[in-house]
Design goal:
heterotrimer, A alpha+beta (485), B alpha/beta (484), C alpha+beta (95), A: Arc Repressor Mutant, subunit A, 3 domains, eight-stranded mixed β-sheet, three-stranded antiparallel β-sheet, elongated, B: 484 residues, alpha/beta, Amidase signature (AS) enzymes, three-stranded mixed β-sheet
């Protein structure tokens, strides 16, 4: 039996506003517990919500970025259930008239193809607080921190258009790149700025009926999402092939232990009893507001990708990688402009720099090497002051904080020797010191000679302490050897 | 001094006939002597009151103090008062001391009014008799075997017993007007959105509104001047200019068109009440007003609509009382679920629990369209009735309650019987219109009220007509036998 | 319309109200009579009427995104049933 996987995503994006969606308490990350939970956030008796303008604007901007209709009279509903991190005993969210309607997002896949993924809608809602069940707590108790309660979220609900973990990850990453590019979210996954719920079902290939889906909640890394999807698909297929039935259920995946489990609750599925929130009025959005936000919308990843190809002559592949990471894009452009060699800039940013940042668990904003510094170094490769090999040393030194590229090149005397006179001298000395090799070279077939050049190159680089300009050396070497033939 | 109206007390303070401290002490003494007879007040804030009075006297001596400066008032225990227990008549909040003021409280404090204490009320404002309070029922000063009305029974009884010249109260389905009628005082529920709901513990968000209670319409106008304000912290607060409600009290009622809904004079209306109300209308007619019979055809639907919408909203509003952040938590909870269920079952009284269950039912999957959805549509029918009527009349009048105060326990077992107490008042909350009640007779030794309903934001005209009525009658000056 | 006991139990769970044997019968009776009242709504002709939640049409005011609330943890937690190191504490939920 051949199986098709059907995947839909619900993505919670924390909006990067200064204050909560319904109160003027701060949303800053990392505050001491309950120091940013005001009377409204604590659901004190008699408190009332007032809507944050910036949260509305950010939601509209997202809608514009995915080509969706903006609902110009949207409404908030109450979703009723009890949990300690939900102070009012209901969450203020949107159901019937969400602020952003149908839209779509294009993903790029590894084989170079593109696919459109539909977005059913996106709505505004408030985040809950955080419960802790372990740690320094009295026996048998859980602790509740309501700092996060009231943080504005948009929940983005996709159509079940994805057919593989790869597509799901590409979609998730594309959303990440969109929301960070338009600056409505800081994209810090480790801080919970984006959280993913994955709906997975399987069906025989060719079937048009959807299988029963399960929901795996609260994934906050692409890697874990991929693992969770793959495991769940396998679990469902095994179950069905063994004659079982997939139960509609909510699951949790622990990325550290690699264990997925069902969240079986004691009672029946919750009846949320949605009804329009009587403390809030319909949110009326004018054409003028939408137009204003549209004009001010920052560059989107797809547009940026096209621009990188046309402006910097990057390959589609490189442009795709860089453009979809807004931090990397910003970094790259400074390096490209500052060094005048976009291709080299791209290589260094995607390669050495990304690798080093990854290993040190840093992101571009925390890079010890600034884009200006990197630009300076790439410029020196571009103008032949240093070789690519030397550049690696320079980079390492910059990473350690030893200064700018020029300062390091100076200090370590790494300046590439490109003076043809000096190089001629070195080449001549090496040839004189290796007469047997020269003899061997002259007596070899033409086809074998190219390989033997390496031997001479090695000696020359050694003699020049690696500072000889390799291209020039190659030229001079060939010239001299040819004279001897 | 306790027989003076607020208007008279303001003059007295300005003319140095007495000080605010003397005035406050006088009322505090009366409260300590008399309150136990009626149980109108839950918390007395004696020390705080005298401190405020002292400050008020200083301010008065400087001249140019606001009207309410130095005037003692009571706040219904539904308004959060910073540092003072705010119980909402419930065991759930028996230990709740908010660190913030309701805007209504803040407005009075800013103007230098003196808070004497917090008045008793039906638990979470759910009731029409003040029999459901955790702190025991309030007795009607006119007949202590009878209810004062509810949910603002404490505020009404306190004023009738002359324990304070004025009080704040709230009205969701009649909770200002009905107790005002049953206690022989004046009370006004403003247009929805006229007075801020910030810090006012929510019962039914789309219906709740705070308003003044006092013995005269003029006093209500003075209190409303202070209570009404646009509040940015309340999204449902309306940004509309607050007029001086006392400025137009003297206008003549000549030519005023008064609509008399025929649906408000049908079976179920006590004959004595009907007679008193018709006499009052005749009095106004004699002053030049024109009485016009109108119809509010969907009136009958207002009680069922209300008893879907109010409990539904309340069921969500009361979910925050969960024993987690404040308020009552049960002893030795086994686990989280037990903590929730027992804290709420022990903290809330029976009527509150009933309404939560009804509200939950009406919002449930499968029932939403038939109940909540339907009720909200019916609400529009009711509003249409009123807007149609106001095309041909300026004000609408009729009885406030179907009968004078009933005896305790009279409506005991049948919740619907209790709900029908609100039959004349509920429609105004559903429509968001302003309504008030003024005394218009004594029937079987108990007071009866005349209800005045105005168009949106027409409180000034309503107070004007009520004041004019109080110039030609003296029902508002009647005192319960036990008090005089 | 009468309401079944099972229904009451479900409602009690949804609204987190512990309800005992004694009160179930009482509540069932009272609720049924209230619902009979409420059923009168069904007779109303509400075709083509929208659901409205408020008396007159106005739009939600928007607040500027500026922090104005300060840390009042001490004041709020002074009135909390139970706290520990700045957290509100509750009994664990048994899965």
């Amino acid at each position: 039996m051949s199986w098709e996987t059907v995947i839909g995503l619900e993505v919670h994006v924390q909006l990067a506003t200064k204050t909560k969606i319904f109160s003027a308490a701060s949303t800053a990350f990392g505050a001491t517990p309950n120091s940013q939970a005001c009377a409204i956030d604590l659901a004190m008796p008699g408190t009332l919500p007032v809507l944050n303008k910036q949260a509305v604007n950010y939601a509209i901007m997202f809608g514009l970025a995915i080509d969706a209709d903006i609902c110009q009279e949207s409404v908030f509903e109450r979703k009723n259930y009890f949990y300690p991190d939900l102070p009012k005993g209901y969450q203020t969210t949107q159901l019937e008239k969400p602020i952003v309607g149908r839209g779509s997002v294009t993903i790029q896949l590894a084989d170079g193809s593109e696919k459109a993924i539909g977005i059913h809608h996106a709505h505004l809602e408030e985040d809950a607080g955080k419960s802790t069940h372990e740690g320094n707590l009295p026996h048998g108790m859980s602790g509740v921190d309501l700092n996060r309660a009231g943080t504005p979220l948009i929940e983005i609900v996709s159509e079940p258009d994805m057919r593989s973990a790869e597509e799901a990850i590409a979609f998730a990453k594309k959303l990440h790149s969109i929301v960070t590019s338009i600056n409505i979210c800081d994209g810090e996954m480790s801080q919970g700025s984006m959280r993913f719920d994955v709906n997975v079902s399987v069906r025989p290939i060719g079937s048009s009926v959807l299988g029963t889906r399960t929901e795996t909640k609260n994934l906050n890394s692409f890697k874990f999402m991929e693992e969770a999807i793959e495991r769940e698909v396998e679990r469902q297929i095994d179950l069905i092939e063994d004659g079982g039935i997939v139960a509609q259920e909510t699951r949790l995946y622990n990325g550290d232990t690699k264990v997925a489990k069902s969240m079986r609750s004691k009672e029946e599925a919750n009846d949320y009893r949605y009804f329009p929130c009587p403390d809030l009025l319909p949110v009326l959005i004018s054409d003028a507001t939408i137009e204003e936000l549209r004009q001010a919308l920052p560059e989107l990843p797809d547009a940026r990708q096209k621009r990188f190809v046309s402006q910097y002559a990057l390959s589609d592949y490189d442009a795709n990688i860089i453009a979809n990471d807004s931090n990397m894009s910003a970094f790259f452009e400074v390096v490209a402009e500052g060094s005048n060699n976009a291709k080299l800039a791209a290589n260094w940013v995607m390669g050495e720099l990304s690798g080093a940042l990854n290993n040190a668990d840093l992101n571009f904003s925390g890079s010890p090497v600034s884009p200006q510094q990197l630009a300076g170094m790439v410029a020196r490769i571009e103008d032949n002051s240093i070789s690519g090999k030397m550049a690696k040393l320079v980079f390492e030194a910059m990473w350690k904080g030893e200064g700018t590229a020029d300062e390091i090149i100076q200090a370590k005397g790494l300046k590439q020797v490109s003076d043809s006179g000096a190089l001629e001298k070195i080449v001549a000395e090496v040839l004189d010191a290796n007469l047997a090799m020269v003899e061997d070279f002259i007596n070899s077939d033409e086809s074998k000679r190219k390989k033997k050049l390496g031997g001479f190159m090695g000696q020359i680089m050694k003699a020049s302490k690696g500072q000889a300009n390799p291209q020039q050396v190659n030229q001079i070497l060939l010239q001299k050897l040819n004279e001897l033939l | 001094m306790h027989n003076y109206t607020i208007a008279e007390l303001i003059k007295g303070l300005q003319n140095n006939e007495f000080s605010s401290v003397e005035l406050t002490q006088h009322f505090l003494d009366r409260i300590s002597q008399i309150n136990d007879d009626y149980n109108a007040i839950i918390t007395v804030t004696g020390e705080q009151a005298l401190n405020s009075a002292t400050l008020a006297d200083q301010r008065l001596s400087l001249g140019d103090a606001p009207a309410m400066c130095g005037i003692p008032i009571l706040h219904k225990d539904i308004f959060c008062t910073d540092g003072v227990r705010t119980s909402c008549g419930s065991k759930m909040l028996d230990n709740f001391i908010p660190p913030y003021n309701a805007t209504v409280v803040e407005n009075f404090a800013r103007d230098g009014a003196v808070m004497l204490g917090k008045t008793n009320m039906d638990e979470f404002a759910m009731g029409s008799s003040n029999e459901t309070s955790f702190y025991g029922p309030v007795k009607n000063p006119w007949a202590t075997d009878s209810v004062p009305g509810g949910s603002s029974g404490g505020s009404a009884a306190a004023i009738a017993a002359r324990l304070a010249p004025g009080a704040t109260a709230t009205d969701t389905g009649g909770s200002i007007r009905q107790p005002a009628a049953l206690c022989g005082i004046s009370g006004l529920k403003p247009t929805y959105g006229r007075v801020s709901r910030w810090g006012m513990i929510a019962f039914a968000s789309s219906l709740d509104q705070a308003g003044p209670m006092a013995r005269t319409a003029e006093d209500c106008a003075i209190l409303l001047n202070c209570m009404a304000s646009f509040d940015e912290k309340d999204s449902t607060s309306v940004d509309k200019n607050v007029p001086d409600y006392t400025a137009s009290l003297g206008n003549s009622v000549k030519g005023l068109k008064i609509g008399i809904p025929k649906e408000y004079f049908s079976e179920g209306l006590h004959p004595g009440t009907e007679m008193a109300v018709r006499k009052a209308l005749a009095d106004l007619e004699a002053q030049g007003a024109e009485l016009v019979e109108i119809s509010l055809p969907n009136s009958e639907l207002s009680v069922p609509a209300y008893y879907v919408i109010a409990p539904a909203e309340a069921s969500a509003n009361l979910s925050r009382f969960d024993g987690v952040k404040y308020g009552y938590r049960c002893e030795n909870p086994k686990d989280l679920h037990d903590m929730y269920c027992r804290s709420r079952a022990e903290g809330f009284g029976e009527e509150v629990q009933r309404r939560i269950l009804i509200g939950t039912y009406c919002l449930s999957a499968g029932y939403y369209d038939a109940y909540y959805g339907k009720a909200q549509q019916v609400r529009q029918l009711i509003q249409q009735d009123f807007s149609e009527a106001f095309k041909s009349v300026d004000l609408i009048m009729g009885p406030t309650c179907p009968s004078p105060a009933f005896k305790f326990g009279a409506k005991g077992d049948d919740p619907v019987a209790m709900y029908l107490e609100d039959i004349y008042t509920i429609a105004t909350n559903l429509a968001g219109l302003p309504g008030m009640s003024v005394p218009c007779g004594i029937v079987e030794d108990k007071p009866v009220g005349l209800q005045i309903i105005g168009n949106y934001f027409d409180e000034a005209r309503m107070l004007n007509v009520a004041h004019q009525f109080q110039q030609i009658t003296n029902w508002h000056q009647q005192t319960p036998e036990a008090i005089s | 319309m009468t309401i079944e006991r099972k229904e009451i139990e479900k409602l009690a769970t949804l609204s987190r109200l512990a309800i005992d044997e004694k009160t179930i019968a009482d509540v069932t009776g009272r609720l049924s009579s209230v619902l009979a009242l409420v059923d009168q709504l069904q007779s109303a002709n509400t075709d083509s009427l929208q659901e409205i939640s408020r008396p007159f049409h106005t739009s939600q005011r928007l607040r500027d995104d500026e922090v104005s609330e300060t840390d009042q943890r001490e004041a709020f937690q002074a009135i909390a049933p139970e706290t520990h190191n700045g957290l509100f504490t509750v009994p664990k939920m048994i899965e």
